[in-house]
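Example 317, ligand 6-O-phosphono-beta-D-fructofuranose.
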Amino acid sequence: MRVAILTSGGDAPGMNATIRAVTRTCIFEGIEVYGISGGYEGLIDAKFEKLVQSSVADIIQRGGTILSTSRSDRFMTEEGLEKAINSLKIFEIDALIVLGGDGSLKGANKLRERGINVIGIPCSIDNDLAYTDFTIGFMTAVETVTEAISHIRDTTEAHGRANVVEVMGRECGDIALYAGVSSGAESIIVPEIETNINEIAEKAIMGKNRGKRHHIIIMAEGCGSTFDFAKDFQELTGIDTRVTVLGYIQRGGAPSIFDRILASQFGYLAVKEAKEGNSRVLGFKEGRAKAMTFEEMFEAKKVFREDLLDILKTVSI
Ligand code: F6P
């Protein structure tokens, strides 16, 4: 049997740990494994290379992806899709394992609809896939943001200022929410909940009146301009307000322990599912890695953790 693996879309810490788990499980099971470089672009251009045990040595702790990645416009065309399928046929691949986020798993489904056996593994710092509790890379990004905010907090406190910290996540507020709870940020602004600037301003003024010298607001990138918000907030409160856009720092770095363990579970399960001849997406539910159908993925509706927001509002005052 032959399996191929690719990483697609935005890289996520833990992709390498997943590639390692897939490769080593394949070899253990007597399955040949090929790495495709450059995501769907590389699939179209048949950039296959056989992986052996040592190909994935010393990568469990590394961010990024040794296979490299891309956001492929060509794969969205009929011609690109045909070429991709052709590459899989030339290399006689029995199953393709795709590591990526929302768009990448939708791409995997296109191949499945054409009769290719595909296993999708959710990798994205955004945690915006509804069918799984967590995507690989998310918890690492939350840790990176939390660490960055502890630095920002020191200088904010020293000056008696406010700081609006912009985080990634596309249309999903999970990075802001989880990092808000773990960093003790006073307020978060997320696309899922309507923003009430007066409420945030009142909280800051009350804090200031109690002698508090810092106010951290985490704003998800899907909520518009952090600079405009900071300007309005400063005008309302009179508190000197700065902006920090964390940007790509959130995508790199060593994966957290949680992400390494998640990656190992997903990589192992992906090979088992491929061996069975299944086409599935893998998710993390009730503390375990689980294989689900693509239909289940499409039907799932993302639920924003309002319970966590309530905790934040109660304890970060
Ligand atoms: O999906 C991951 C992500 O980092 C998002 O949070 C962000 O909006 C986007 O990718 C940035 O994409 P690019 O790397 O193409 O600039």
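Summary: The longest strand covers residues 2-7.
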